[in-house]
Amino acid sequence: MAVVGVIGGGQLARMMIPAAVALGIEIRVLAEAEGSSARLAATEVGDYRDAATVLAFAAGCDAITFDHEHVPQEVLRALEAEGVAVRPGPDALLYAQDKLLMRERLGSLGVAMPDWARIETAEQLGAFLADHGGRAVVKTARGGYDGKGVRMVDDAHDADDWLAEGAVLVEELVVFQRELAQLVARRPSGEMRAWPLVETVQRGGVCAEVIAPAPHAGAATVRAAEQLAFTVAEGLGVTGVLAVELFEAADGRLLVNELAMRPHNSGHFSIDGSTTSQFAQHLRAVLDWPLGDTAPVAPVSVMINVFGGLPEKSIRTALAHQPAVAVHAYGKDARPGRKAGHVTAIGTELDDTAYRARAAAACFDA
Amino acid sequence: MAVVGVIGGGQLARMMIPAAVALGIEIRVLAEAEGSSARLAATEVGDYRDAATVLAFAAGCDAITFDHEHVPQEVLRALEAEGVAVRPGPDALLYAQDKLLMRERLGSLGVAMPDWARIETAEQLGAFLADHGGRAVVKTARGGYDGKGVRMVDDAHDADDWLAEGAVLVEELVVFQRELAQLVARRPSGEMRAWPLVETVQRGGVCAEVIAPAPHAGAATVRAAEQLAFTVAEGLGVTGVLAVELFEAADGRLLVNELAMRPHNSGHFSIDGSTTSQFAQHLRAVLDWPLGDTAPVAPVSVMINVFGGLPEKSIRTALAHQPAVAVHAYGKDARPGRKAGHVTAIGTELDDTAYRARAAAACFDA
């Protein structure tokens, strides 16, 4: 039986469990702590920054993959040196870990992006602001996610605290119509598959809602997004799932916002809405197994994140009011603002499907 | 978090795991042995016939349910005496455990069945044969499944070995057009839901293939099957999933063949083909949670059992050849004739869907 080791015990690892069970894959999780979201498959609790811990965990695994992108390069390279199949590998993950390197690399691949610069001083930031209408977005090169490590600035000194730590990324504030995401999977032997382009709705810098497929996306946009994601997956040598977060600019151009080299919030709809879910596909891809069909099982899927917690009483209410909506709970203790679960409705018509998903999600409002 | 304890570590317990993960339910399995199909959730290994073992296992569970129907009545009643929610309860399970009692009880509910009799002697069997064209089916009252404990007879002495052990059930050999199955779920507070009527194709007394919905079933047949299953579920006080195996007689009447009070092979298609799978529904039902929508996600589903084993090489072949077919492996060691997994195709048209399912299943032929 194939064995996949997952570093990190969050909800992404948790949602790989059902896929592993179906495919007869043994899944082992190295969790950060007891009681993690993926505790059912946690065979070990330990520090993913410690090479010895991770090497011991990897023994007997056919492939190592990730719940997050924070495993240090030294640890990843130590695994590879021992002959462990690390997927995605350190050379690819580097671009998910460091946004400055990512921008440079995407530039060399010819991928469209917001204007950006590497800045090391307030003067450089001031110059960028002057060239871009007086406002911009500053991002720390490393460690940011879900709105953290990202800041809107309109003054040359607005990033002084971060600049004291080193170089940061500055990007133009893109005037976009909406945000989209293109999910693809790639296996080591090269096969790639794309899911339909989706629209993502962010609130407070965090994904709130995903509509699949993206409404009113023209064939040219759909093709362009898919080609772009394939270019990135191939160019960066990604194995497993790659999510490319995109801005659809006012003029219709697609600009790459962020990359994630793992199953991604924008693909949660695929559990209920796709022939092959992103979690099943990720496991297949990291094992270099043949990839699955990504066709939708219904014309429309709407996924809505639930923040805070999913008390049992609210789950029962949601199931009672919306018996056709799938509720996914991540088994986490309640905490304000925490991604605690999601709901997905599938259907034939966007308005009705979105209504049902929102009605189910509303059962979790405090 | 709700906790469901499952007695038995076979594939039915295994397939409850993904449903539990999605719903945020903690699932604990009392397995017969190490390395069971449901080992990922096995919190204990022990003998389900031992009341002390089962009582200890049940501590902390909100409901106890089953992978099989073999837990002795004394053990079930000991659980109930301790206030454990046993679902289905002993009064219902009795009819799944003893085919003679089942026939008597169904008779009192007015449900159509093959002609049957309780026989204790070869003379009685001879008399039944004489009245029913010289051939009949003899079944042991207890312990039969998948063709075991079932025998075609044409001589009064053909069941002497079983009669030496006690009374057996004899049934007329029904001339049927085909076999069907009606799956329903019922929760303690009374809510019931039915899946579409399915056709089951048996080979050697074992389910080989399931087509959902049953092709060419008229509205009257569909309604009759649903009503019949609701009558049985309510009449017997079943909680959780109930499968009613049916003969469609030459004259179109539906006759009850067997009952199963748990997720059932005839409902495996629902994992991929239904809005709510039988495994999710079973967990919801045994916790007395609101039941889910049972509408199909595609016009046709075809499920085919895989026997023997699912070597990784064959899984990869099946996934490569049929990228839209779902492969389900039960994590069992290979053994001739053993139910080792299944494949499900969903689609819009029966011929194509069945072709794809069969092509995937054929990848596992030795």
TrEMBL record, chains A, B:
<keyword id="KW-0547">Nucleotide-binding</keyword>
<keyword id="KW-0658">Purine biosynthesis</keyword>
<dbReference type="InterPro" id="IPR040686">
    <property type="entry name" value="PurK_C"/>
</dbReference>
<feature type="binding site">
    <location>
        <begin position="257"/>
        <end position="258"/>
    </location>
    <ligand>
        <name>ATP</name>
    </ligand>
</feature>
<protein>
    <recommendedName>
        <fullName>N5-carboxyaminoimidazole ribonucleotide synthase</fullName>
        <ecNumber>6.3.4.18</ecNumber>
    </recommendedName>
</protein>
<dbReference type="GO" id="GO:0006189">
    <property type="term" value="P:'de novo' IMP biosynthetic process"/>
</dbReference>
<keyword id="KW-0067">ATP-binding</keyword>
<dbReference type="InterPro" id="IPR003135">
    <property type="entry name" value="ATP-grasp_carboxylate-amine"/>
</dbReference>
<dbReference type="GO" id="GO:0005829">
    <property type="term" value="C:cytosol"/>
</dbReference>
<comment type="function">
    <text>Catalyzes the ATP-dependent conversion of 5-aminoimidazole ribonucleotide (AIR) and HCO(3)(-) to N5-carboxyaminoimidazole ribonucleotide (N5-CAIR).</text>
</comment>
<dbReference type="GO" id="GO:0034028">
    <property type="term" value="F:5-(carboxyamino)imidazole ribonucleotide synthase activity"/>
</dbReference>
<dbReference type="Pfam" id="PF17769">
    <property type="entry name" value="PurK_C"/>
</dbReference>
<dbReference type="InterPro" id="IPR005875">
    <property type="entry name" value="PurK"/>
</dbReference>
<comment type="similarity">
    <text>Belongs to the PurK/PurT family.</text>
</comment>
<dbReference type="GO" id="GO:0005524">
    <property type="term" value="F:ATP binding"/>
</dbReference>
<feature type="binding site">
    <location>
        <position position="179"/>
    </location>
    <ligand>
        <name>ATP</name>
    </ligand>
</feature>
<dbReference type="InterPro" id="IPR054350">
    <property type="entry name" value="PurT/PurK_preATP-grasp"/>
</dbReference>
<dbReference type="InterPro" id="IPR011761">
    <property type="entry name" value="ATP-grasp"/>
</dbReference>
<dbReference type="InterPro" id="IPR013815">
    <property type="entry name" value="ATP_grasp_subdomain_1"/>
</dbReference>
<comment type="subunit">
    <text>Homodimer.</text>
</comment>
<dbReference type="InterPro" id="IPR016185">
    <property type="entry name" value="PreATP-grasp_dom_sf"/>
</dbReference>
<dbReference type="GO" id="GO:0046872">
    <property type="term" value="F:metal ion binding"/>
</dbReference>
<feature type="binding site">
    <location>
        <position position="99"/>
    </location>
    <ligand>
        <name>ATP</name>
    </ligand>
</feature>
<feature type="binding site">
    <location>
        <begin position="171"/>
        <end position="174"/>
    </location>
    <ligand>
        <name>ATP</name>
    </ligand>
</feature>
<feature type="domain" description="ATP-grasp">
    <location>
        <begin position="103"/>
        <end position="288"/>
    </location>
</feature>
<feature type="binding site">
    <location>
        <position position="139"/>
    </location>
    <ligand>
        <name>ATP</name>
    </ligand>
</feature>
<keyword id="KW-0436">Ligase</keyword>
<dbReference type="Pfam" id="PF02222">
    <property type="entry name" value="ATP-grasp"/>
</dbReference>
<comment type="function">
    <text>Catalyzes the ATP-dependent conversion of 5-aminoimidazole ribonucleotide (AIR) and HCO(3)- to N5-carboxyaminoimidazole ribonucleotide (N5-CAIR).</text>
</comment>
<comment type="pathway">
    <text>Purine metabolism; IMP biosynthesis via de novo pathway; 5-amino-1-(5-phospho-D-ribosyl)imidazole-4-carboxylate from 5-amino-1-(5-phospho-D-ribosyl)imidazole (N5-CAIR route): step 1/2.</text>
</comment>
<dbReference type="GO" id="GO:0004638">
    <property type="term" value="F:phosphoribosylaminoimidazole carboxylase activity"/>
</dbReference>
<dbReference type="InterPro" id="IPR011054">
    <property type="entry name" value="Rudment_hybrid_motif"/>
</dbReference>
<dbReference type="Pfam" id="PF22660">
    <property type="entry name" value="RS_preATP-grasp-like"/>
</dbReference>
